[in-house]
């Protein structure tokens, strides 16, 4: 009888991919297909870099390595937890962040705008002061601080637990002096002054959609996903409060995700520029301070 070929990283990726497809997992937390999800988990278990040679991919694995992969892959299937919660990490705008189930798994397409240095909406020299509303893991505010080394960033969240994760990410990326975290309801205290750029990925999923969501989402904090008023409650308050916190030439960059058509319909008087994203996703709107100033004050 022929002996089975030894397991390798490559064979375990293909095996995990097949199992994920069979189990009909949902992919929307950093990957969008079974192959990438398998690579993410297998490489994590084996501590492999994403760029690795064929020789490494085809090297025989030890029994201990195979069981480590098996445990992770089985857990992804049996618990339906997003892969990032199983590994405790996720990449955003080219940087690695610690995550746990107190924070949303980082995936906002705002990453693309950060990597593009917010061109053409921000001044070429970059924004001096940035506010990140609903910072979660801190990914948006910290990635912005890393992109603009002279910028000062304030980041708010209403969840103490999320801010604890964000604080560890601030320390990890050594931006302690430039990123200040605030436990606050959307906006930090007025004394913090005005911002050149406000970035916000607030909760925007209508409560009514909770029952339709794939199980993976239900492992994320409800506070990070759902908003009253058909998903518009927090966006409405951000629109009302943003102008008075922006500098003259400032702008708000909002991730409204799949709720963007409802935002467009609810605020017909507001000129929102919906960004054409190069790397997938939708719902990123840019609104100037001048536009927002037309909103009733908060
Ligand atoms: C969609 S998550 C975004 C997290 C992170 N910015 C990201 O993009 O991965 C929304 C975040 O807003 C926070 N949040 C919810 N209501 C808030 C409020 N009233 N004021 C401040 N933050 C709030 C949640 O705790 C959550 O961390």
Descriptors:
36% helix, Rossmann fold, seven-stranded mixed β-sheet, binds S-adenosylmethionine, 2 domains, alpha/beta, two-stranded antiparallel sheet, 298 residues
Structure commentary:
There is one protein chain. By secondary structure, this protein is α/β, with parallel strands linked by helices. It contains 12 helices and 11 strands. β4, α8 and β5 form a beta-alpha-beta unit. It is elongated. It binds S-adenosylmethionine. The site of S-adenosylmethionine has 23 residues, from α7, β4 and α9.
Summarize the structure.
By secondary structure, the chain is of the alpha/beta class. It has helices at residues 9-22, 34-46, 54-57, 63-79, 83-87, 110-115, 139-147, 160-172, 222-225, 233-242, 260-266, 289-292, and strands spanning 89-92, 95-98, 129-133, 152-157, 179-183, 195-200, 205-206, 226-227, 246-255, 273-274, 284-288.
């Amino acid at each position: 009888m022929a002996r089975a070929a030894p397991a390798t990283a490559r064979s375990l990726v293909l095996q995990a991919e097949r199992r994920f497809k069979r189990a009909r997992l949902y992919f929307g937390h950093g990957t969008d297909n079974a192959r990438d999800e398998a690579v993410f988990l297998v490489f994590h278990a084996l501590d492999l870099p994403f760029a690795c040679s064929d020789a490494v991919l085809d090297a025989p694995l030890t029994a201990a390595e195979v069981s480590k992969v098996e445990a992770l892959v089985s857990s992804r299937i049996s618990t339906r937890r997003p892969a990032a919660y199983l590994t405790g990490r996720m990449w955003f705008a080219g940087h690695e962040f610690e995550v746990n189930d107190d924070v949303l798994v980082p995936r906002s397409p705002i990453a693309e705008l950060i990597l593009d240095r917010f061109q053409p909406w921000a001044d070429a020299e970059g924004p001096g002061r940035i506010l990140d509303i609903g910072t979660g893991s801190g990914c948006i505010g910290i990635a912005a601080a890393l992109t603009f080394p002279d910028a000062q960033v304030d980041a708010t969240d209403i969840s103490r637990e999320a801010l604890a994760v964000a604080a560890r990410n601030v320390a990890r990326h050594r931006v302690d002096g430039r990123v200040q975290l605030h436990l606050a309801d959307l906006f930090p205290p007025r004394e913090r002054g005005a911002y050149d750029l406000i970035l916000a990925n607030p909760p925007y999923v209508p409560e009514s959609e909770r029952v339709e969501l794939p199980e993976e989402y239900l492992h994320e904090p409800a506070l990070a996903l759902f908003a009253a008023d058909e998903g518009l409650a927090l966006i409405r308050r951000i629109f009302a409060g943003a102008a008075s916190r922006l500098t003259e030439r400032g702008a708000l960059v909002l991730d409204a995700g799949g709720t963007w058509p409802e935002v467009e319909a609810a605020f017909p008087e507001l000129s929102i520029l919906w960004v054409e994203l190069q790397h997938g996703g939708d719902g990123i709107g840019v609104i100037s301070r001048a536009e927002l100033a037309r909103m009733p004050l908060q």
